Amino acid sequence: TSAEDEGIFLEGTGSLLLDRVNRKAYCSLSARADEEMMIEFCEDFEYTPVIFKAYQTVGDERLSIYHTNVMMALGEDYAVICLDSIDDKKEAKNVLNHLKEDGKEVIKITEAQVNAFAGNMMQVHNDKGERILVMSDQAYNSLTAVQIEKLETYNEILHPSISTIETLGGGSVRCMMAEVFLPKA
Asked: What is the pTM for the complete model shown?
């Protein structure tokens, strides 16, 4: 697009977490997620934008998290999120208020868990309509027993080992999956 020619991006499902039921789009701004493009997307598709900036500690620096799906995942009835990565307390409170307003249980994760890809998970439905939460084995092993118990009240958890992808590819489960919302033929 013309925006790409100007070095402006909004990288789809990595940058945006869409709550399709409540028509909200969560986005952590970064070099891969431009605020104006985000607002334009929300206007075009009639979503309410929930915009914030998330950071991670790298050495002694706080650097922007490149994709929202690194630090946050949305299920139908819950949100997994690293609120500690949102340094601006007003922004963190705004995100939290939107999640609670929509009746989502907030399951907090730590920055160490983000580094183990615990924010990069996706809830899907099988052919029987049952909910399954897919995450990597590394992400699963980083979670506490309490976090796992909470997640299992909403869905079965599937956690394959994808260490090669996580080590060499730079992403995890959600990065490898697409959300398809088409009716069955």
From this structure: 0.91
CA angle, 125 as apex, 86 and 142 as ends, to 5°? 45
Query: What residue spans of 29-166 are helical by DSSP H?
Result: 35-45, 89-101, 111-115, 137-142, 145-152, 163-164
What residues make up the domain containing 22?
2-176
DSSP category for residue 70: G
pLDDT in tens, 139-178: 999 999 999 999 999 999 999 887 877 777 777 777 767 6
Q: What is the phi/psi pair of residue 182, to 5°?
A: -105, 150
Q: Are 115 and 63 in contact (CB under 8 A)?
A: no
**What confidence score (pLDDT) does residue 13 get?**
73
Residue 143 sits in a domain of what CATH number?
A: 3.75.10.10
Beta bridge partners of 74: 79
- Residue 47, in any domain of the structure: yes
